[in-house]
Design goal:
Blueprint (H helix, E strand, L loop, with lengths): L24 H11 L4 E5 L3 E4 H17 L7 E5 L4 H12 L3 E4 L6 H11 L3 E4 L2 H10 L4 E3 L21 E7 L7 E6 H15 L6 E4 L6 H14 L2 E4 L5 H10 L4 E4 L1 H8 L12 E4 L6 H11 L4 E6 L3 E5 L13 E2 L4 E5 L4 E5 L6 E2 L3 H7 E2 L2 E10 L5 E6 L4 E3 L2 E3 L1 H8 L5 E11 L3 E10 L5 H9 L10 E4 L13 H4 L6
Parallel strand pairs: 1-10, 3-4, 3-5, 5-6, 9-10, 9-11, 11-12, 12-13, 25-26
Antiparallel strand pairs: 1-2, 7-8, 8-18, 13-14, 14-15, 16-17, 17-20, 19-20, 20-21, 22-23, 24-25
């Protein structure tokens, strides 16, 4: 269904829109910085504002260090750190060098880090947490590890900004329904085309100032917030850790115009007596997890903001958005963005998409790539429905992915860890609705004795990221199964104590 023209300003005809991308992210950014070298671009609490010229100079230095460490075009560079100017510089330097960035969640534990390292085989890892160096070297001793300040030896000048639109830019690790997380390879063109669609749809301009409290390892924070700011020539204020008071203070101090968040953030902002300060913004966007219609309405009642909900994926960047002008319908994600085609196929109806923003496939996963596409359309695994006005709603997931606080949780990964716990013989993990987190992880176990929730939470928390820990654990005599022996997870939620 092609209705993306509904995102365009009234004075702009769809036939006048140029969506073809011929540039790279880094060459687009560099051109902007050279045009306006003194314009402030990024702010963080440690360094304050830095300009385009500073980004040019500092990324050139870091690129020379990476080059001296052996990074060449097409090599992978793992990045994991809290939001900062230093991280933005490192990200920019890697892309300018032609390397492929692997943005990685800092909450990962040793097993998760080892999987990414052995699968993607980065040449250099730029990481914040000291223990990661040990974990990385245990997985691959050849990887060069350095903190975000990139404390490596300076090398000679290197060739920069030669990447093409079809050159790989990111490998984003995402969970499916089988096996370990796999890397979605996104090109410069994929990511640029998505931002250009958002520029039109959200009326994003060089005058905008975004308060960015989202992490920069996630498509929402990195592919939308940071890449959008740098591509459009706007400004972003980085908030390394989401704190209600810090976000609201930043809105006032920097005269911000935009805020992007996940539903959990909006719920916490509403708890503040200062929540009405959101009314000054021209645009509030929510994504990464469904925004409950009730929360959408409460935000409006308190702040006057009609939050704009959108829909995207690691594999596709942004796909669908409620309109900037017109009704932002609670419970809906809106219309396909410029350049994106959406269709519903099968029963139940799966959302399938295609467009210049859609990735070409998973890193070294030929079998999964065959299954991921049908006739050129990417199978999202999400189930959808269009209403009579053409608004798309996400009604479920064909895949079992759990989204808690905007983070993806892969049930099989959690189940495999729980089964390592001695007293447990069987396990099934599901996501259940939660007002604060969207969904929370719940475990059902068959065990030789009573199992306390805290002991499973602690066991999993020592091995996986904190958001993957089960919030509740229930002991059963047996897991419900069908005639073929498959666990019937839909029946498990009926057993949850209210």
């Amino acid at each position: 269904m092609n209705s993306w023209h509904r995102h365009l300003p009234n004075e702009l005809d769809a036939s006048e829109v140029e969506l073809e991308v011929r540039d790279s992210l880094s060459s687009t950014w560099v051109a902007r910085w050279r045009e306006q070298p003194q314009k402030a671009v990024i702010h963080d609490p440690e360094e304050g504002w830095i300009s385009g010229q500073e980004l040019l100079d500092r990324s050139d230095v870091v690129a020379r260090k990476l080059g001296h460490a052996g990074v060449e075009s097409g090599d992978r560079v793992l990045l994991s750190a809290s939001s900062s100017v230093a991280l933005v510089v490192a990200h920019t330097a890697a892309l300018r060098l032609g390397a492929v960035v692997i943005p990685t969640n800092g909450a990962y534990r040793a097993e998760e880090v080892a999987h990414v390292v052995t699968d993607a085989r980065p040449k250099v890892a730029i990481v914040e947490r000291p223990e990661w160096t040990e974990w990385i070297h245990a997985a691959d001793p050849s990887v060069v590890a350095t903190p975000p300040s990139v404390e490596l030896e300076m090398g000679p000048s290197v060739v920069l900004d030669q990447a093409q639109s079809d050159s790989p830019a990111l490998i984003g690790y995402t969970s499916g329904t089988t096996g370990r997380p796999k890397g979605a390879v996104l090109s410069h063109g994929n990511l640029l085309s998505s931002v250009r669609g958002l520029k039109l749809a959200w009326r994003w301009t060089t005058d905008d100032i975004l308060v960015l409290a989202l992490p920069l390892f996630h498509m929402h924070g990195l592919g939308v917030g940071l890449h959008g700011t740098l591509t459009i020539g706007a400004k972003a204020v980085l908030v390394p850790e989401f704190e209600v008071s810090e976000v609201l203070d930043s809105l006032q101090e920097f005269d911000a115009t935009m805020f992007f968040g996940v539903p959990t953030m909006y719920g916490r902002l509403l708890e503040s007596e200062r929540a009405n300060e959101l009314e000054k913004l021209r645009l509030c966007v929510s994504g990464s997890a469904p925004l409950a219609a009730e929360l959408h309405q409460r935000i409006y009642q308190v702040t006057g903001q009609r939050v704009l909900e959108r829909y995207g994926m690691t594999e596709t960047a942004m796909l669908v958005s409620n309109p900037y002008e017109g009704e932002r319908r609670p419970g809906s994600v809106g219309f396909p963005l410029p350049g994106v085609d959406v269709r519903l196929e099968g029963e139940p109806a799966e959302i399938q998409v295609k467009g210049p923003n859609v990735f070409s496939g998973y890193w070294e996963r030929p079998t999964e790539n065959v299954d991921a596409f049908v006739d050129g359309w990417f199978r999202t695994g999400d189930l959808g429905a269009f209403d009579s006005d053409g608004y798309l709603s996400i009604v479920g997931r064909a895949k079992e992915l759990i989204i808690s606080g905007g983070f993806n949780v892969y049930p099989r990964e959690v189940e495999d860890v729980i089964l390592e716990y001695g007293p447990i013989q069987e396990c099934a993990v599901v996501g259940v609705p939660d007002d604060e987190w969207g969904e929370v992880v719940v475990a059902f176990v068959v065990a030789e004795r009573e199992i306390e929730t805290e002991e499973i939470k602690n066991f999993v928390g020592e091995r996986l990221a904190h958001y993957k820990r089960p919030r509740r654990t229930y002991r059963l005599e047996a897991l419900p199964r069908n005639a073929l022996g498959k666990v019937q997870k839909h029946r498990l939620t009926e057993k949850i104590e209210n």
